[in-house]
Amino acid sequence: MHVFLAGATGAVGRRIVPLLIKEGHRVTGTTRRSEKAEFLQSLGAEPVVVDAYDRDRVREVVAAARPDLIMNQLTDLVVYDVAANAKLRREGTRHLVDAALAAGVRRFVHQSLGWIYAPGPGLADEDEPLDLDGDAARRSLVGSVLEAEQAAAEVPETVLLRYGLFYGPDTWYAPDGLKVDEARAGRLVANRDVTSFLHVDDAAAAAVQALDWPSGPVNVTDDEPAAGTDWMPVFCRAVGAADPAISTEERPVWVRGVANRKARGLGWAPVYRSWRDGFTAF
Ligand SMILES: NC(=O)c1ccc[n+]([C@@H]2O[C@H](COP(=O)([O-])OP(=O)(O)OC[C@H]3O[C@@H](n4cnc5c(N)ncnc54)[C@H](OP(=O)(O)O)[C@@H]3O)[C@@H](O)[C@H]2O)c1
């Protein structure tokens, strides 16, 4: 299959390329910077330089590649800027979908998020309602995720990968990552919101398997969603930091854990089943 991978240089994209090549697929991989083209070539991809905000250029490169499938792994998160990322999620996805429809591409695999479900008991499956009634920041996050998912679903066959929170090499939760710096500076505060983690290698493996999955959302997370009060002390100890402060804020739990039953039923299984093992493998 010929895959057009938008975001091929990112933390997950750069892991997807070699896996696709190993399975015999052809990959056209995007970057905004011509100096990264050689890196993509070294992974086995055919590089194409394009900015996702440039609607005409996106159309042009997709039409020229004529792929069987477009995979959207675009994010704008090197600097922690949720507004920039939400804008890219909305506009970048829109441009890729328009390009897919114009070029007659019938399959789309889209990077989405798992921490978007409304509060409720237990772990959330894919058919649970989304959290559209939270505070302004929460509504903005969930709204932008939903808008991008709805755009992606305009392509006839679309898999929505509702990923957990990445950790591992090249992420915020890596030995040289942003969150390690925050932990060592004593800036992490643990609360009872539940995080569903995902090792970035397991995220890449799921994206490759999703080439053949049926359309619809799939939660892709590890097996042990955990409250901040459980995972954060383990993370801090793993990176040689003091235990985090515990939040004294009185409020209900906002973020709910996510069930990975559907992904497991489709044949995917995390190599890193729990952040407990993953953090200590740092
Ligand atoms: N589910 C999650 O937890 C999750 C998901 C995604 C990211 N993150 C975190 O975010 C951090 C940064 O992620 P990252 O290293 O993947 O970097 P990133 O800056 O988020 O970039 C990801 C990909 O998107 C591309 N990109 C960004 N803006 C673009 C634009 N306007 N047009 C076209 N392509 C664009 C980048 O390409 P070029 O820069 O080569 O142009 C890159 O290939 C990491 O800590 C990662 O773990 C977390």
Automatic annotation (TrEMBL):
GO terms for cellular component: cytoplasm. InterPro entries: Epimerase_deHydtase, NAD(P)-bd_dom_sf, NAD(P)-dependent_oxidoreduct. Residues 3-215 form the NAD-dependent epimerase/dehydratase domain. The lineage of its organism: Bacteria, Bacillati, Actinomycetota, Actinomycetes, Propionibacteriales. It comes from the Bacteria. GO terms for molecular function: aldehyde dehydrogenase (NAD+) activity. This is Nucleoside-diphosphate-sugar epimerase. PANTHER family: NAD(P)-BINDING DOMAIN-CONTAINING PROTEIN-RELATED, PROTEIN YEEZ. It holds the Pfam family Epimerase.
